Automatic annotation (TrEMBL):
Interacts with ribosomal protein uL14 (rplN). PANTHER family: IOJAP SUPERFAMILY ORTHOLOG (PTHR21043), MITOCHONDRIAL ASSEMBLY OF RIBOSOMAL LARGE SUBUNIT PROTEIN 1 (PTHR21043:SF0). One of its GO terms (biological process) is negative regulation of ribosome biogenesis. It comes from Metallumcola ferriviriculae. This is Ribosomal silencing factor RsfS.
């Protein structure tokens, strides 16, 4: 099993390959028991939100890594993929601004993903 940081980076790479924007890794290890990392991604449309989620699911499934849960896929405004130590949030921009997870988890170390 991959460590949480490696998994978070792999998820970020898969998201960037589908043109995910403003990809942020939040390191929650010192501030929460919910997860070690959040990966937060923006997309321009519900179609792109689903494409990013599908890319992540496919890439990790190839390594026999499956999410514990998946939420929001039908509406595709905000899809959550829970991989245990890493929770991925794929938002349409309006929802990302509304929920503002980066502010909510402001005590977490934040890293802007710059690509592979």
């Amino acid at each position: 099993m991959k460590d949480s940081r490696s998994l978070a980076k792999e998820i970020a790479i898969a998201a960037s390959e589908k043109k995910g924007r403003n990809i942020v890794l939040l390191n929650l290890q010192e501030v929460s028991l919910i997860a070690d990392y959040f990966v937060i991604v923006s997309a321009g449309s519900s179609t792109q939100v689903k494409a990013i989620a599908d890319s992540i699911l496919k890439k990790l499934r190839e390594e026999d890594i499956v999410p514990r849960s998946r939420e929001g896929y039908q509406e595709a405004q905000w899809i959550l993929l829970d991989y245990g130590g890493v929770v991925t949030h794929i938002f349409q921009e309006e929802q990302r601004q509304f929920y503002d997870l980066e502010r909510l988890w402001g005590d977490a170390e934040s890293e802007q993903f710059q690509g592979s």
